[in-house]
Amino acid sequence: MKTVFVVGAGPAGMFAAQKIALAGHQVVIVNRDIKHGGLAEYGIYLVKDKMKSGLRKQFAKVLSLPNVHYFGHVPVGTKQALTVDDLRAFHPDAIVFSVGAQGTKKLGLPGEDAKGVYSAKDFVYFYNSLPPFASQDFSTGKKVAIVGMGNVMVDIARWVLFDNPNRQTEELTIVARRGPFEAKFDEKEIKYVEHNLDRNELNAEMQRVAERVAAVGQDIGKAGDVFSILQHTDVPQTKPVMKFRFLCSPKEIVKGADGRICKLIVTENLLVKKGEGTAAKATDQTVALDIDTMIFAIGDVHDPNLGLPMGPEGYSTKPVPGDERSLYQVADPQTGAEMEGHFVVGWARRASDGLVGIARHDAEVGATHVLNYLASQPDKGAAAIETIESTLRARNIQVVNKTELALLGKAEEKEAQERGLTYFKYSDDTSMLRAITREKKTNNTPAMAGADD
Question: Which CATH code of 3.40.50.1370, 3.40.50.11890, 3.40.50.720, 3.90.190.20 fits the domain covering 3-102+301-397?
Fold first, then answer.
């Protein structure tokens, strides 16, 4: 039996851990958050309880394996209490990084530091109650803009229009750098917000860009074939109003006297052919939109502060044609030399690529290459699980192990029952740690260090 560290406990990490553990190896999951699940817990839209419940059950099965160990509340990075070098010092036989894409993709706009300007990832974490985002200021105003035209945009629009308990929104504008034929959202998702769509406004917007999309052979009269909400003409409109602004790219953010965004300057784009697809080409024409909240839903990037070498597209690998393993093997971007025993899976390998099903497949393929690597290597003499945990705690890291994670689950179940909810989760680390301590006292077990009432 060899020891593999899995850094990150989202879908990719959990399913990679499962495959490696079922092959007979010992797996140590090290997770930034107290709770596991990653985007399955904190990224899927908050009212999709059936989907989340199913994934929680699958992840519980992974954690129930006796050779899977869990250390939550242990962030890894160059600016954290635990670094990648520290992980290596425990002499694991391999390390699998499944940390997702935790960097923030920005456009580098003037005024981007204005209040009321958020990345989609952080905003989704906020309304899904992930610490510390849940307690930070993600306030929205009366005129909100979301940049992007995928399913993440739809989720955010749904929250802004319906589920925000402090909703002030009167108008929501979707800003898209290309046209209606390039929409990426699913029909079943957009139906959640189509009642808010101003169809007269949408038809006018279609005509506004008709000539520009015709330049690449697109017939605006057939936009309904791909922009399905156009076909639902009998849907009554409700407020707040939702509208689209096509062929526009953010150029500048204007701050008001209070430091909050008050206007968004956008550049009008042309649509041009690019290979088999299309691309936006900026013009000299700009328009000012009255906006007090702006959310970027343009994908995510890898966090360079993790401590892995970075390449042009994220964590560095050196793909070799015909060698699938090379897609998962971390490599030095300067020399091309492989970092022995270091692998990336899921969004840590390819940022923002697909949902849970794709993450699971990618993790299991990557885990297969990890297993093949382990079979070819001598045992490195990894530190004992008890030694790893005691070392972490000696650094004043408030580790949450598998037993404590189960106690947290019991505490949240009690809260849900008392509040008459289907499911409840704490939105800050302190409350979680205190809940674990209370459960330990109830069961007459030692309290967690630093987790007082």
Answer: 3.40.50.720
